[in-house]
Amino acid sequence: MSDLTQTVTQYLALWNETDAEKRAAGIAELFAPGAPYIDPLAAVEGHDGVGAVIAGAQEQFKGLSFELHGAVDTHHNIARFQWGLVTEAGAEPVAIGFDVLVTGDDGRINGVYGFLDKVPGA
């Protein structure tokens, strides 16, 4: 497993972490302090911003979890990957997205740029 694949795995685990303190600690460890998170529904910067977006998604989609769909494609310090929001492991996703994650020299996330391919009710 490449370092970037491991970073993606850790990143998705943050979206599934329901303990706010553990999630905040994971964000602080994985993200550079001013890193942006930008998708069609949110544009935030920093640990608090990322934490708020994740908490909001968890509130909106209680009981669902994010999982990796397919392989992580990487080069240099960039990873792109598709994720699904599922009711249980391996289930048909109710939402599907595609994220691009960029890391710095220290391996921390310097930015995440997301796209939504399938949204509930669309």
TrEMBL record:
Domain SnoaL-like: from-to ranges: 8-109
Pfam families for the chain: SnoaL_2
Matching InterPro entries: NTF2-like_dom_sf (IPR032710), SnoaL-like (IPR037401)
Domain of life: Bacteria
Protein name: Nuclear transport factor 2 family protein
Organism: Streptomyces chilikensis
Lineage, uppermost ranks: Bacteria, Bacillati, Actinomycetota, Actinomycetes, Kitasatosporales
